[in-house]
Structures are given as C-alpha cells and as structure tokens.
C-alpha cells in the first residue's frame, strides 16, 4: 500500500510559541520551517509514501516545501488543526477517492524514512490507526486506509481521543524518530539526541541549548 501524507503547518510566525525560551522570535520561524523541511524530506524518501501534501497558508513555507516535492494545499476551511487535516485529506481524495491517507505532524525533525515505513506498514493492517507521541499523551500519526474517513482528533490528549474513536493504536518499538515531535526545548534536546536532519542541524547551529 502506498500512502499520501497530509502535513499541517501553521504560519511560521505563529508556530511553536512554547519554544520561546530556546529560540527567540527572530529565530523561531526559521527553526519551525527547518522542522517541516526535514519532516517532508524524510516522508518523500519513504518507500511507502506516494506523495506529500502540506496544508499551509504560509507563503515562505509553501515555496520551500514545494521545492522539496510537496504539494501545497491552502489552509482554506474553518480554523484549527483538525479542520486543516480534514481539508487536506478531502483534497487528496477529490483526485483519488480510495487513497490511503496518513496525517503526520510537521515537527518531526529527527524523522527517519525507514522508521516511518515500519509505521505505515503496520498501519496497513488497520482501517484506521494511530501512533502515540514520545510523551505517550498525544499523536504524531493518524492513518486511514482506502475508503476510510481520517476523522482527526489531534490536540492535547489526542491519544485517548483517537483510541476512543476506534482507531487501532500502533504499539511499535524502534520508531522513536516518528514519535519525537518538538513543542518545547526539552523536546528539541531529545530530537537532537536522536539525530535531526540537515535543515534542523543548520537552524540550530547558533542556538545555545542547555544539556547539549
């Protein structure tokens, strides 16, 4: 099974406010873009991925991620992460009604294509499924197979919400790079320990990050 990844991305100037203690306002937008670039690049390198759709209204991010090979879909519907994901999935299925779709966070700078492939291979065994984040509370990936609604429920406590919605939880080891999203300085340290991609490496070059 080949998957289309749907990746939502806020305007860079408004994203990742919880990283303020690690990256100031002048640096943070570039760091957020770097996270997304490494996420998209790893997604496109994954053997199980057919294509990547990024839902964003940010012109800079749209240009840079399009250059990597992503398709950009304007974030046109009602505001909010889940509305953006539903809109992206709908855009994919207007062209390919039976497409297998996986919503993926944009903040996975350590993402490895081989680990993402493991997750997507496991997801193919379920009508709908999800992968919990490293903290065990949220979700980094939600997958819906052919002819299944995505029904995203991202946000605080989404692990419980997705489980309650009937999605199967993917209980996999060895896929830390797919679980390690970045919201805080501590998360960024964890991602850097795993080993981030080239865009995030460059963006972090001049940051002073305690513990590293």
Written description of the protein model:
With 212 residues, the chain is an alpha/beta fold. The protein has one domain: Spore Coat Polysaccharide Biosynthesis Protein SpsA, Chain A (Alpha-Beta Complex), CATH 3.90.550. Helices cover 38% and strands 16% of the residues. It is built from 8 helices and 7 strands; from the N terminus they run E-H-E-H-E-H-E-H-E-E-H-E-H-H-H. It has a 7-stranded mixed beta sheet, sandwiched between helices.
Q: In the CATH scheme, what's the topology name?
A: Spore Coat Polysaccharide Biosynthesis Protein SpsA, Chain A
Largest sheet: 7 strands, mixed
Question: How much strand content do the residues show?
Answer: 15-25%
For the largest beta sheet, what order do the strands appear in spatially? 3-2-1-4-6-5-7
Determine Rg (CA atoms, Å).
Answer: 16 Å
| Total number of strands | 7
Written as H for each helix and E for each strand, in order along the chain, the element string is EHEHEHEHEEHEHHH
How many angstroms separate the termini? Answer: 40 Å
The low-confidence parts are none
Q: Quick one: CATH class? A: Alpha Beta
CATH homologous superfamily assignment = Spore Coat Polysaccharide Biosynthesis Protein SpsA, Chain A
Helix content: 25-40%
The shape is globular
| CATH architecture annotation name | Alpha-Beta Complex
Structural class: alpha/beta
Instruction: Please tally the helical runs, counting DSSP H or I stretches of 4 or more residues.
Output: 8
Domain count? 1
Q: Give the overall average pLDDT.
A: 92
